[in-house]
Amino acid sequence: MWKVALLVHIVLMTVLMGALVIAIVSVPALADQGMRLILIAAALGFVAAIPLSVYVSRRILALTREA
Question: Which residues contact 54 (CB under 8 A, 6 or more apart)?
């Protein structure tokens, strides 16, 4: 399970980080503090992807075992 979770984590982490960075860059009020907020967004994307990747990998494995 952990191999699948790691692969899913890489994808989810990249998507979450990208979405958060785009949100920071596109809002003019946040652009002033961009360098600090982008680092926070990257860390938040990394951490938030952990439980999501475990959940998704469990669902993937459960669906593939049934088939």
Answer: 5
